[in-house]
Design a protein that fits this description.
Layout: H1 4-19, H2 21-31, H3 36-81, H4 88-99, E1 108-117, E2 122-132, E3 143-155, E4 158-166, H5 182-198, E5 207-214, E6 218-219, E7 233-241, E8 248-254, E9 273-274, E10 295-297, E11 300-302, E12 309-310, H6 321-324, E13 325-327, E14 360-363, H7 366-374, H8 384-395, E15 412-420, H9 442-461, E16 465-471, H10 476-485, E17 494-497, H11 500-513, E18 516-519
Parallel strand pairs: 4-5, 4-15, 12-13, 15-16, 16-17
Antiparallel strand pairs: 1-2, 2-3, 3-18, 5-14, 6-9, 7-8, 10-11
Helix pairs in contact: 1-2, 3-4, 5-7, 5-11, 8-9
């Protein structure tokens, strides 16, 4: 119920509005709230649309930044793999453009800038992208700038590596596609691998590299150390029957410059070579050519290796000449009578001389292993089992070579890189004493190949990585053999390198495979 006072007020107000209409209109306008909701809605929608537009522009910028970061990561990893190559920066830019194509979402790219620290083995990349806006232009922002950066660090596990390199006579021939010898191409490729693994360092505590050069035999003297006959020594061992001559024996012999135990006393003119431990008497039950270190095989003791003697056929008063005469005598080519021939070449063919370069045991110096590679010279026939077997001996911590750490508390890879340019070639003076026959015989070659396959299987059973490179020679059977002995029959474990450039590429890929890369920023 309305009171009389309120009715009176309204009548008075009505009369006032008749007298002063503009004043009343203003009051009613201020007091009228009809339609206010629509105004609030319009204002709210304006703010919402602006926020959504800003979010749209920000979302586009986020997508660009994410793609930019991924492209930099891919480019940095590519640069790490080729850190010491002349193509490194080009590789970085190529991988970046592949992963961040021009015009992506309309972005304009600056970079990537490339900073490489070869000493610390890092690659740092930085790039910026300007992303044009759609809605934020209304607020005065024509573009958004995003920045991405990344760093990759080359990091190696501990690595023990042995280079087992063919230095047979064919390595002196010219490498296809170049004016240098096959050996020179192999030396250049090996030095590239060494450079990649060492990076900018002269030594690395967790990196050890050794070298085993080989032809028909292996020189087991330590490279750079001279043999002095007067400093040879004998060492007592448990009594055994010498498998080479059937005689009872209680000592083995050592030269002053080699840790390899010898079944016979090394003579004054010993050149450092030994024979493969193979008797060829019963097929494959008591031979040690596919076994590691001093060992016993089915009751037959092999506490050492038989040295390859220089000598005549037969040497007067020396019954061992028929067994051990695996080296040519001096001036054999001027002495065609029976005294100028090698004990294992009774037909008159000269035995292949022992390599002049010995073994470089595992060590950590970049300079030492590089110098060892540079001293190689070519000559002789091809005995791949000998080269692989002695690489195994150098790589493992058991005698005779013991530079590798036994049972390390840290992660470590052990690997052999085996390079050859030819096929197994049994012949006079080889490490098997030509028991298989001549390399002109497929049967002889097959027997030697079988020894190599068994040897490689034993090595790989120990978890050792075997990289096999077939250089120049495209023989289908040889390629199949090399694939069999490698850890896997394809890259990065097996390579066929028809040219010097292909060989260099293979060594680089192996080096990169042996290096770990990780994103550090």
């Amino acid at each position: 119920m309305k009171t009389s006072d309120s009715l009176g007020f309204r009548r008075w107000q009505s009369r006032l509005c008749q007298w002063r209409p503009l004043r009343c209109f203003g009051r009613r306008l201020l007091e009228d709230d009809r339609g206010a909701t629509a105004v609030y809605v319009v204002l709210g929608l304006t703010v919402m649309i602006a926020a959504m537009g800003t979010g749209l522009d920000a979302g586009r910028a986020y997508i660009v930044k994410s793609r930019l970061s991924s492209a930099l990561d891919a480019a940095a990893l590519a640069g790490g793999l080729t850190m010491f190559d002349a193509t490194r920066d080009d590789d970085i830019r190529k991988y970046f453009r592949v992963n961040f194509p021009d015009g992506f979402m309309g972005a304009t790219i600056t970079g990537p800038s490339i900073t490489v620290d070869e000493g610390n083995e890092t690659v740092f990349l930085r790039a910026t992208a300007n992303v044009s806006t759609a809605v934020m232009q209304v607020m005065g922002y024509d573009s958004i700038t995003v920045v991405a950066e990344t760093e990759v660090t080359r990091k190696m596990k501990a690595l023990d590596l042995v280079l087992s390199m063919d230095i047979s006579g064919s390595m002196s021939e010219t490498a296809p596609g170049s004016h240098q010898s096959r050996l020179a191409a192999a030396q250049a490729a090996a030095k590239d691998l060494i450079k990649i693994l060492y990076g900018g360092a002269d030594t690395k505590d967790l990196l050890k590299i050794g070298l085993v050069p080989w032809n028909a035999k292996v020189n087991v003297m330590v490279e750079g150390q001279a043999y002095v006959h007067g400093n040879r020594r004998s060492e007592a061992v448990a009594a055994f029957t010498n498998p080479e001559n059937g005689q009872n024996q209680t000592v083995v012999w050592y030269a002053n410059n080699s840790p390899v135990p010898l079944l016979f006393e090394p003579p004054p003119g010993w050149k450092g070579c030994v024979f493969n431990r193979y008797k060829n008497s019963d097929g494959d039950t008591n031979d040690a050519d596919t076994h590691e270190g001093p060992t016993t095989v089915n009751g037959v003791s092999w506490p050492g290796w038989a040295p390859s003697y220089p000598g005549t056929y037969p040497a007067a008063g020396d019954p061992l000449s028929l067994l051990l005469g695996g080296e040519p005598v001096n001036n054999w080519y001027n002495n065609w009578d029976i005294r100028g021939r090698c004990g294992l070449a009774p037909s008159g063919s000269d035995c292949v001389a022992c390599p002049s370069v010995g073994i470089t045991p595992l060590q950590s110096s970049r300079g030492a292993i590089t110098s060892a590679v540079e001293t190689l010279t070519a000559g002789g026939n091809t005995n791949i089992p000998a080269g692989l077997a002695w690489a195994w001996e150098v790589l493992t911590p058991a005698a005779p070579f013991s530079e590798a750490v036994a049972n390390p508390t840290y992660d470590r890879d052990q690997a052999i890189v085996l390079l050859t340019d030819g096929i197994n070639c049994p012949n006079y003076g080889d490490g098997y004493k030509r028991v298989f026959g001549s390399c002109n015989s497929n049967s002889a070659r097959d027997k030697m190949d079988a020894r190599l396959r068994k040897l490689a299987a034993n090595i790989k059973e120990q978890g050792i990585l075997v990289y096999a490179i077939q250089f120049v020679d495209s023989d289908a059977d040889q390629i199949a053999l090399m694939k069999d002995i490698a850890t896997a029959p394809e890259a990065p474990f097996y390579y066929y390198a028809p040219t010097g450039d292909a060989l260099k590429s293979a060594f680089r890929e192996i080096a990169n495979h042996l290096s770990e890369l990780r994103l550090s920023k």
